[in-house]
Amino acid sequence: MKMTPRERILAAIDHREPDAVPVDLGATPSSGISATAYGRLKQHLGIDGGHTHIYDVVQQLAQPEAKILDRFGIDVVDAGRAFNDREQDWYEIRLADGQCAQYPAWFKPEQNADGSFLARNRAGLDIAHMPAGGTFFDQSVFPWLDGYPSDMGVALPDAMKQVLWAELVHSPWDHAGKPDFWEQLRRRTLALQASTDRAIMIVCGCNLFEWGTFLRRMDNFMMDLYTEQDRVREFLEVIMVQHMATLEKVCAAVGDCCDILRFGDDLGMDSGPFMSPDVYRDLFKPHHTRLCDYVHRHSGMKTFLHSCGSIRELLPDLIEAGYDVINPVQTNCRDMGPEGLKKDFGNDICFWGGGCDTRAVLNRSTPGEVRSHVLERLEILAPGGGFVFNTVHNILSDVPPQNIVAMFDAVAEFNGKK
What is residue 418's predicted lDDT score, i.e. its pLDDT? Predict the structure, then answer.
């Protein structure tokens, strides 16, 4: 029986084999496409008009338009797209390769004499830099670089405003300061739900480990996990107050009209997790469990965790914590081979990603090689459900458009549509 895109996504998450492998492009800021690659893809497909709206200004990601979603059979969209509908909310810029694109009206980076850019927060503090010819911004301010403040509860809100991930946030959160934001979020999400049969994703963040690195810088926070555990515990309790307040409002506003809530917390590097499983269980797992429990008890949404890197050692604990979905399934890292992941965890968590290697295949291979690679991954990951096709993280600026087409056409071929 033919399913709607929403039914297809939910069947896959529930480990029921859908009528076709569901597909994502751009439903999260970790499953999208760079503005540069997006513009070249449209040119390659002969799609004129429209816009390259850069909704994620940090990673310079484009919001896929309806023609692209339809062309590639995309089954899920980001609730934030309901906020990106007015032309006066955007202005035209030029990308490093000369293509035309659009920034949100509130984002006004300053270009230096050497061609590089700096971005300021709303208070005027320089918080992020992009080099000349670059394709994303890097954080330049770490508010707690010299140590934790004596009263983290008081200091945290101001510190968060100095961090690029809070100040240069992804839609719809750039509207969150408006008095009617939560009513507007519900109204626009309901309208989006009425206009599409695709599943709807709400990106919520609620990062824990990552917020430590944003505030203290990666090197310091990594040492804190072993040498300052009491301060880390205090910090996590403080930031969970912020996260739970947001999560309660999200569930109340859209818990009955969004299908998936996306959390983020990068826990792995190429060689393994950033921390031992014991440290994860002690410091982070109780809070991740609390977040997942709240979503499951107060909404109909599935819980989705974005975590890069080699996290196989942590997967049993992430499953116990209550995550329904894991992304991006970074199969080019240690112990992250798709065969082993599917065999050992395929009945317990949905793999959203891993469908095409973006580090060495999608950007460097021929279209024929991309096709073969994708078909092989589909044969491994698709049987029995528990899989949504997506690349291993975002499609970056160096990916040839013909390879993107070959990738999605291979999924269509596997699904019997060609």
Answer: 43
